[in-house]
Amino acid sequence: MNRVLLLNPPAKNSLQRDFLCSSSSKASYYWPPIDFIVLSGLLKEFEVRVIDAVASKISNTETLSKLKAMNPDSIISLVSSIGFNEEMTFLKKVKDSFPNSRIILIGDIAFFEKEKVIKNKFVDAILLDFTSHQIIEYLKNPENRRIKDVCYKIGNKIIFNGMLKSSEFSYNHANLELFNLNSYSIPYSIHKKIAPILFNYGCPYKCSFCASGNIGYKIRNLSESKQEIIHLYKKGFKEIFIRDFNFTTNKLFVTDICRFIIKNNLRISWSCEGRVDNVDKESLLLMKKAGCYLIFFGVESGKQEKLDNFQKKISLAQIKKVFRLCREIGIKTLASFVLALPGDTREDIMATINLSKEIDADYASFNLYVPRYGSNLRKSLEKNSKLDLNSKFDSSKEFINLTALPEEEILKLHRHAVRSFYFRLPYMAKQVRSMKTWFQFKNHFLNGLSLFKNS
Q: For the purposes of burial, counting CB atoms within 10 Å of the CB of 328, is it exposed (0-12), middle (13-18) or buried (19 or more)?
């Protein structure tokens, strides 16, 4: 049987390589890469193993030792724009140690810079869609010249037959037994063990600073989605982590899933990402009844002109209304913001920081602007030859300064954003009162302590 290893390479820090994105954990959380969760379901006819060196906190030497014991025929490895040089150095060592193993890459830089990345001699292929069944065809016969969704080599020739066009995907049940779920966490979770799940791939929106709208968009088969929820419930999971970029995009799908959970009396908690312009009181009430306890919303800026300029297509009025509705209904909220967007002034950044407290979000994620691979804004910036966009940019702590403010002031404002939001006595007291489990209290305490040290 073809032995396939899913490899998350070692990293110095808690580097999150996940869903064609990369960033460092801001605190002590680290969630499972959804790419591998999906592939664990797709590749069930193969002998699959997983090494997540980041989650397990193991070194290059330990990882190579584990690889030797497995002796895989194919290695599907995550890579990132942040840690790319170190990852490629390590993977070259892997290829030198296992010359007969195929090296297949997944990641933001591999997806958006496939022509450059595939030229590395030790790289055999790039998987461009981790939900695609075409990877099965490639693993069975890498000499097949008709495979799509994969950029690959046959001899010295690079083959790319384009991407399949589909509005739906499926991956059966994820094989969660392959993962040490105790080594993962999300910062706001209620229970220790969480089950990641994917209901839609990509994003239909085109925010200019984000790349997710440029990878395609499709929805998981509804019947299969329901079956997996039942499967996870029977396995004893009390919490599901919906990893979609925007779970709330398709209102009919959301309604059907929620009614299914309610009808079958599945007592399971779940969190998701959503947009303020595609939820309302009716849908939020239904989601709450079905077990939704938190929604992650991309708010981005406290200035309407910034939201308009960067194609977010939401209004401050919508943001304030939806956060108020969630508060009234009893759904917690996580608001994500981008500081130092191109052209931001100190007033703009302070307006964003002030909005985080005005909407009374339960959690806030303050990210520094980085030119993400594949984003429309990066493409426009690439036309400016004076800008060096090849540096490593980690939105948790690094950024490209396209404002008139000194970098020191931006970093100071970033620290102020975190401290002024999280370290308010009324806020901390409110969070303690809302704890439902001992694990939740411990999880919050450890993440808060880590956040304090980092800020």
A: exposed
How much of the chain is helix, strand and coil, in % rounded to 5? 40, 20, 40
Strand, helix or coil for residue 144: coil
**CA 268/CA 289 separation, integer angstroms:** 11
The confidence score (pLDDT) of residue 445 equals: 65
pLDDT tens digit sequence for 113-162: 999 999 999 999 999 999 999 999 999 999 999 999 999 999 999 999 99
CA 402/CA 26 separation, integer angstroms: 23
- Judge whether residue 387 has pLDDT over 90: no
Check pLDDT > 70 for residue 408: yes
Helix (H) / strand (E) containing 55: helix 53-56
Contact 301, 338 (CB under 8 A): yes
Residue owning tokens 């330990």: 62
393 DSSP β-pair partners:
none
* DSSP, res 48: E
The dihedral over CA atoms of 318, 321, 323, 329, expressed in degrees to the nearest 10, equals: -140
Residue 351 reports pLDDT greater than 60: yes
The domains of the chain, with CATH numbers, are: 3-160 (3.40.50.2300), 186-454 (3.20.20.70)
- Dihedral in degrees, nearest 10, Cα atoms 358, 361, 366, 370: -100
Count helices and strands (H / E) in the chain.
Answer: 17, 18
Structure tokens at 234: 């029977």
Closest CA to 261 of 278, 245, 242, 274: 242
Taking the CA of residue 90 as centre, how many other CA atoms within 13 Å lie in the half-sphere pointing to its CB? 25
Q: Is the dihedral of CA 137, 141, 146, 148 positive or negative?
A: positive
Alpha carbon distance 207, 273 (integer Å): 15
What's the pTM value of the predicted model, to 2 decimals? 0.95
Average pLDDT rounded to a whole number, residues 270-298:
98
Distances in Å between the Cα of 182 and the Cα atoms of 229, 290, 417 are: 20, 25, 31
What was the pLDDT predicted at 449? Answer: 65
Instruction: Check residue 216 and give left, alpha or beta (phi > 0: left; psi -120 to 50: alpha).
Output: left
**Residue 42 above 70 pLDDT?**
yes
